Amino acid sequence: MSVELGAKSGVFAAIITSGVGVISSLIINSLIYGIQIPTSMYLYMTLNIFIPYIIFGLLAGVIFSVIYKYLPGQSAVVKSVIMNIVIWAIVNLYNIFFLLSKDFVGISFIMINVTQGLITSIIFGYLLGFFWMKFSREKEQEVIEF
Fold it and tell me: Which of 2, 126, 121 lies closest to 66 in space, CA to CA?
């Protein structure tokens, strides 16, 4: 499969997932701290989550297209979810050890970040595989029509 297909799928999945990430972060922060989130924080969180996640989506889509045939699973969704859980685990092993080395970080903070990160990774993996299949079918339709 083409790298272009992976990049396109990754960006589309990242747009949706980053929206979920922004909304869930705002909800979780307002529930935990019990405060009204200022409008400037919405913009900050949107830029802080949205832009890096689009870049991650692009890179993850390209990586997915390169290693697709080597991933376990029958469908693109299963393959993508597996790949994203592995990426999440590698990144979070580092983050957990780093955060635990700091005195000011509580275990509840770590658990919230780990849980939210895992859920977001699974959602992104599902969407990457979904868009991969959707755009693959569209590409096949274009070939059949010509």
Answer: 2
- Encode pLDDT of 8-51 as tens digits: 999 999 999 888 777 777 777 777 767 666 767 777 777 777 88
Which residues, in sequence order, are CB contacts of 43 under 8 Å at separation 6+? none
- Per residue in 92-118, pLDDT (tens digit) is 877 777 766 666 566 666 677 777 788
- Contact between 48 and 29 under an 8 Å Cβ cutoff? The reply is no
Quick one: tokens of 140?
């096949």
B/e letters for 4-28, b = 16+ CB within 10 Å, e = fewer, are ebbbbbbbbbbebbbeebbeebbee
Element housing 122 (H / E): helix 107-145
The set of residues, in sequence order, having a beta carbon less than 8 Å from that of 46 and lying 6+ positions away, is 22
Cα separation, 114 vs 108, in Å, equals 10
Residues in the chain: 146
As a whole number of angstroms, the distance between CA 6 and CA 4 comes to 5
pTM here? 0.79
